[in-house]
């Protein structure tokens, strides 16, 4: 790869140019990232320890929380440290590694959200078959399939990109590396590669989003003849998931289902889904789910009591 590339080191302009604003961003985003790690980590720990959270829904939730930490950690730690650096550099190999893991964890999360929607569909619309259809081996296979889908997607992205010769310019107006700015550095016309990237990233998001919307429409139609209390319970179990889906898919579709651009708002939208959304997800699930809150109180109570003893 080095023999056909004139570019070995890449420079990012960052989120903002002003050094004072960047220091303020450091003070703001460091606690946000720490909250992301702690909040999602608490969910993984609580589901893993608590006997009351042994249903498939909470198993998938713990997998989603683990994915949120991994997804955020591919971008945010370097982004935060770069806020204090005057020159923000990364090697070409480091750039490709960041792109691979960013897309791997991102698509795996998309597929996990789709699996969680299927879980709610079976639980609400086919409750008599829920135990058989969502057994522990089936749940493990669905999660493994999500990881496999993420790997295949990310491998396609990297194989398309790694074959290109890069000439520069090596300065990109962003705070992390993604495929569109990297394609702009190529020495050749990348129309075909751009179409592949668009199809591989954008269409996965759109099709998964349509499947998710369809599943919840079916759930709502299925509940129309049930009692008001039954509809309330069904919607309550789905509300957190629907909120997370909107927060995750909205920015992703906005960025990947249109031609690449240099709009400043692209960076702000990217901040939302790489930094803010992973922090909001545990808050949404904890605040809207009584069982998770009770299990966390019990877990915290046990830790406090064991510490006193």
UniProtKB/TrEMBL annotation:
Pfam families: 7tm_4. It is found in: Cell membrane; Membrane. Residues 39-285 form the G-protein coupled receptors family 1 profile domain. It is a multi-pass membrane protein. The chain crosses the membrane at residues 20-45, 96-118, 138-160, 202-222, 234-256, 268-287. Keywords: Cell membrane, G-protein coupled receptor, Membrane, Olfaction, Receptor, Sensory transduction, Transducer, Transmembrane, Transmembrane helix. InterPro entries: GPCR_Rhodpsn, GPCR_Rhodpsn_7TM, Olfact_rcpt, Olfactory_Receptors. Its main location: membrane. CDD domains: 7tmA_OR4A-like (cd15939). Belongs to the G-protein coupled receptor 1 family. This is Olfactory receptor.
């Amino acid at each position: 790869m080095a023999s056909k590339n004139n570019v070995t080191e890449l420079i990012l302009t960052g989120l903002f140019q002003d050094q004072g604003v960047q220091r303020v961003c450091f003070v703001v985003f460091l606690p946000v990232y720490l909250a992301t790690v702690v909040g999602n980590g608490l969910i993984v720990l609580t589901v893993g320890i608590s006997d009351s959270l042994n249903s498939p829904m909470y198993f998938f939730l713990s997998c989603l929380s683990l994915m949120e930490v991994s997804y955020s950690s591919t971008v945010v730690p370097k982004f935060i440290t770069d806020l204090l650096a005057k020159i923000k550099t990364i090697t070409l190999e480091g750039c490709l590694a960041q792109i691979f893991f960013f897309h791997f964890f991102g698509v795996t999360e998309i597929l996990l959200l789709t699996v969680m929607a299927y879980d709610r569909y079976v639980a609400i619309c086919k409750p008599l078959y829920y135990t058989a259809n969502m057994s522990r081996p089936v749940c493990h296979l669905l999660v493994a399939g999500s990881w496999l889908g993420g790997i295949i997607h990310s491998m396609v992205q990297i194989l398309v990109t790694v074959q290109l010769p890069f000439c520069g310019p090596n300065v990109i107006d962003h705070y992390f590396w993604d495929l569109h700015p990297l394609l702009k550095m190529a020495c050749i016309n990348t129309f075909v590669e751009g179409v592949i990237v668009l199809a591989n990233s954008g269409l996965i998001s759109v099709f998964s989003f349509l499947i998710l919307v369809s599943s919840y429409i079916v759930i709502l139609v299925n509940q129309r003849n049930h009692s008001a209390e039954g509809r309330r319970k069904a919607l309550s179990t789905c509300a957190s998931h629907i909120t997370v889906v909107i927060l995750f898919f909205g920015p992703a579709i906005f960025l990947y289902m249109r031609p690449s651009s240099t709009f400043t708002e692209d960076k702000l939208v990217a901040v939302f889904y790489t930094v803010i959304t992973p922090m909001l997800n545990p808050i949404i699930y904890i605040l809207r789910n009584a069982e998770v809150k009770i299990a966390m109180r019990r877990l915290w109570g046990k830790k406090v009591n064991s510490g006193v003893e």
